[in-house]
Design brief:
With about 190 residues, the chain is mainly alpha-helical. The chain folds into two domains: about 45 residues, no CATH class; about 140 residues, no CATH class. The protein contains six helices and four strands, in the order E-E-H-H-E-E-H-H-H-H. The strands form two sheets. A two-stranded antiparallel ribbon has the order 1-2. A two-stranded antiparallel ribbon has the order 3-4. Strand 1 and strand 2 form a beta hairpin. Helix 1 runs antiparallel to helix 6. It is elongated and about 75 Å long. The relative contact order is 0.11.
Length: about 190
Amino acid sequence: MSVTLVCSSCNAIQTFHVAPFSVCGTCGAPIDPAIRARLEAELRYSSLRRPMLIQIGAAGTSLIGGIMIFFLILAPFDIGTYSISGESVTGPEFLSRMGVLFFANAILMVVIAFGILSEKSWARPVMLLFWCGSVIANLILFLRDHDGNAGGTFVLSLIATGVSTWYLYGKDSVVQYYDALKQREAARTGT
Protein backbone atom coordinates (compact mmCIF):
# COMPACT_ATOMS: atom_id res chain seq x y z
CA MET A 1 0.00 0.00 0.00
CA SER A 2 1.03 3.57 -0.47
CA VAL A 3 -0.24 6.92 0.76
CA THR A 4 -0.51 10.11 -1.24
CA LEU A 5 -0.07 13.57 0.21
CA VAL A 6 -0.35 17.03 -1.29
CA CYS A 7 2.36 19.32 0.12
CA SER A 8 0.83 22.32 1.87
CA SER A 9 3.80 24.49 0.78
CA CYS A 10 4.34 23.71 -2.90
CA ASN A 11 1.19 21.66 -3.74
CA ALA A 12 3.34 18.84 -5.10
CA ILE A 13 1.77 15.39 -4.95
CA GLN A 14 3.91 12.96 -2.95
CA THR A 15 3.47 9.19 -2.80
CA PHE A 16 5.04 7.32 0.09
CA HIS A 17 5.39 3.53 0.22
CA VAL A 18 7.29 3.16 3.50
CA ALA A 19 7.47 5.03 6.78
CA PRO A 20 8.95 7.14 8.21
CA PHE A 21 8.85 10.29 6.11
CA SER A 22 9.12 13.83 7.38
CA VAL A 23 9.64 16.30 4.54
CA CYS A 24 8.26 17.03 1.09
CA GLY A 25 10.47 15.44 -1.53
CA THR A 26 10.05 18.46 -3.81
CA CYS A 27 10.49 21.54 -1.63
CA GLY A 28 11.82 20.06 1.62
CA ALA A 29 9.04 21.58 3.74
CA PRO A 30 8.25 19.58 6.89
CA ILE A 31 5.09 17.48 6.83
CA ASP A 32 2.58 18.35 9.53
CA PRO A 33 3.27 15.92 12.43
CA ALA A 34 -0.42 15.03 12.91
CA ILE A 35 -0.87 14.21 9.22
CA ARG A 36 2.44 12.35 9.18
CA ALA A 37 1.47 10.24 12.22
CA ARG A 38 -1.82 9.24 10.64
CA LEU A 39 -0.28 8.33 7.28
CA GLU A 40 2.56 6.37 8.90
CA ALA A 41 0.06 4.48 11.08
CA GLU A 42 -1.98 3.61 7.98
CA LEU A 43 1.16 2.35 6.22
CA ARG A 44 2.17 0.20 9.22
CA TYR A 45 -1.36 -1.18 9.55
CA SER A 46 -1.66 -1.98 5.85
CA SER A 47 1.39 -4.25 6.01
CA LEU A 48 -0.30 -6.49 8.60
CA ARG A 49 -3.07 -9.03 8.15
CA ARG A 50 -5.59 -10.04 10.77
CA PRO A 51 -4.23 -13.23 12.39
CA MET A 52 -6.01 -16.41 11.30
CA LEU A 53 -7.26 -17.44 14.77
CA ILE A 54 -8.64 -13.93 15.30
CA GLN A 55 -10.46 -14.25 11.98
CA ILE A 56 -11.86 -17.64 13.03
CA GLY A 57 -12.86 -16.10 16.36
CA ALA A 58 -14.81 -13.40 14.53
CA ALA A 59 -16.72 -15.98 12.53
CA GLY A 60 -17.32 -18.21 15.57
CA THR A 61 -18.51 -15.46 17.89
CA SER A 62 -20.79 -14.05 15.19
CA LEU A 63 -22.37 -17.43 14.59
CA ILE A 64 -22.64 -18.56 18.22
CA GLY A 65 -23.78 -15.15 19.48
CA GLY A 66 -26.46 -15.04 16.78
CA ILE A 67 -27.67 -18.55 17.61
CA MET A 68 -27.80 -17.72 21.32
CA ILE A 69 -29.89 -14.61 20.66
CA PHE A 70 -32.16 -16.64 18.37
CA PHE A 71 -32.81 -19.17 21.16
CA LEU A 72 -33.41 -16.37 23.64
CA ILE A 73 -36.13 -15.08 21.33
CA LEU A 74 -37.69 -18.57 21.05
CA ALA A 75 -37.47 -19.48 24.76
CA PRO A 76 -40.53 -17.52 26.02
CA PHE A 77 -42.66 -19.44 23.51
CA ASP A 78 -41.16 -22.78 24.62
CA ILE A 79 -39.91 -23.45 21.11
CA GLY A 80 -36.79 -25.59 21.14
CA THR A 81 -35.08 -27.84 23.64
CA TYR A 82 -33.49 -26.36 26.75
CA SER A 83 -31.46 -27.90 29.56
CA ILE A 84 -29.57 -26.73 32.62
CA SER A 85 -26.78 -29.00 33.91
CA GLY A 86 -28.22 -31.89 31.89
CA GLU A 87 -31.77 -31.42 33.25
CA SER A 88 -34.44 -30.77 30.60
CA VAL A 89 -36.41 -27.60 31.28
CA THR A 90 -39.03 -25.54 29.47
CA GLY A 91 -38.06 -22.40 27.60
CA PRO A 92 -39.64 -20.04 30.15
CA GLU A 93 -37.97 -21.91 33.03
CA PHE A 94 -34.64 -21.68 31.23
CA LEU A 95 -35.12 -17.93 30.92
CA SER A 96 -36.02 -17.52 34.57
CA ARG A 97 -33.03 -19.53 35.82
CA MET A 98 -30.33 -18.83 33.22
CA GLY A 99 -31.70 -16.10 30.98
CA VAL A 100 -29.63 -13.21 32.32
CA LEU A 101 -26.36 -15.16 32.19
CA PHE A 102 -27.18 -16.58 28.76
CA PHE A 103 -28.13 -13.11 27.48
CA ALA A 104 -24.92 -11.57 28.86
CA ASN A 105 -22.86 -14.28 27.19
CA ALA A 106 -24.68 -13.79 23.88
CA ILE A 107 -24.13 -10.03 23.99
CA LEU A 108 -20.46 -10.53 24.87
CA MET A 109 -20.09 -12.78 21.81
CA VAL A 110 -21.72 -10.20 19.55
CA VAL A 111 -19.55 -7.41 21.00
CA ILE A 112 -16.40 -9.48 20.39
CA ALA A 113 -17.46 -10.18 16.81
CA PHE A 114 -18.19 -6.50 16.21
CA GLY A 115 -14.84 -5.46 17.73
CA ILE A 116 -12.85 -7.91 15.62
CA LEU A 117 -14.71 -7.24 12.37
CA SER A 118 -14.56 -3.45 12.80
CA GLU A 119 -10.86 -3.73 13.74
CA LYS A 120 -11.05 -2.16 17.21
CA SER A 121 -8.15 -2.61 19.62
CA TRP A 122 -10.55 -2.98 22.56
CA ALA A 123 -11.67 -6.36 21.19
CA ARG A 124 -8.53 -8.03 22.58
CA PRO A 125 -9.23 -7.43 26.29
CA VAL A 126 -12.91 -8.24 25.73
CA MET A 127 -11.89 -11.63 24.31
CA LEU A 128 -9.80 -12.25 27.41
CA LEU A 129 -12.76 -11.18 29.56
CA PHE A 130 -14.83 -13.90 27.87
CA TRP A 131 -12.26 -16.58 28.69
CA CYS A 132 -11.85 -15.40 32.30
CA GLY A 133 -15.64 -15.40 32.63
CA SER A 134 -15.74 -19.01 31.43
CA VAL A 135 -13.25 -19.98 34.14
CA ILE A 136 -15.34 -18.28 36.84
CA ALA A 137 -18.60 -19.78 35.57
CA ASN A 138 -17.12 -23.28 35.40
CA LEU A 139 -15.61 -22.93 38.86
CA ILE A 140 -18.99 -21.91 40.28
CA LEU A 141 -20.65 -24.90 38.58
CA PHE A 142 -17.98 -27.24 39.94
CA LEU A 143 -18.26 -25.90 43.49
CA ARG A 144 -22.04 -26.01 43.35
CA ASP A 145 -22.47 -29.47 41.81
CA HIS A 146 -19.26 -31.27 42.90
CA ASP A 147 -19.54 -33.02 39.58
CA GLY A 148 -16.53 -34.59 37.85
CA ASN A 149 -17.71 -33.30 34.47
CA ALA A 150 -17.87 -29.75 35.83
CA GLY A 151 -14.37 -30.19 37.28
CA GLY A 152 -13.04 -31.32 33.91
CA THR A 153 -14.75 -28.42 32.18
CA PHE A 154 -13.21 -26.05 34.73
CA VAL A 155 -9.71 -27.40 34.05
CA LEU A 156 -10.24 -27.15 30.28
CA SER A 157 -11.48 -23.57 30.57
CA LEU A 158 -8.45 -22.73 32.72
CA ILE A 159 -6.13 -24.16 30.06
CA ALA A 160 -8.03 -22.37 27.27
CA THR A 161 -7.73 -19.09 29.18
CA GLY A 162 -4.00 -19.56 29.60
CA VAL A 163 -3.51 -20.35 25.92
CA SER A 164 -5.74 -17.42 24.92
CA THR A 165 -3.80 -15.04 27.16
CA TRP A 166 -0.53 -16.15 25.60
CA TYR A 167 -1.99 -15.90 22.08
CA LEU A 168 -3.55 -12.46 22.56
CA TYR A 169 -0.72 -10.86 24.54
CA GLY A 170 2.37 -12.99 23.85
CA LYS A 171 2.32 -14.09 20.21
CA ASP A 172 4.32 -11.60 18.17
CA SER A 173 2.05 -11.39 15.12
CA VAL A 174 -1.04 -10.80 17.28
CA VAL A 175 0.72 -8.22 19.44
CA GLN A 176 1.96 -6.41 16.32
CA TYR A 177 -1.52 -6.47 14.81
CA TYR A 178 -3.17 -4.96 17.91
CA ASP A 179 -0.32 -2.45 18.36
CA ALA A 180 -0.88 -1.31 14.78
CA LEU A 181 -4.63 -1.00 15.47
CA LYS A 182 -3.91 1.13 18.55
CA GLN A 183 -1.52 3.38 16.61
CA ARG A 184 -4.03 3.73 13.82
CA GLU A 185 -6.83 4.61 16.28
CA ALA A 186 -4.58 7.12 18.07
CA ALA A 187 -3.58 8.75 14.80
CA ARG A 188 -7.21 9.03 13.70
CA THR A 189 -8.31 10.63 16.96
CA GLY A 190 -5.20 12.76 17.33
CA THR A 191 -4.26 11.35 20.75
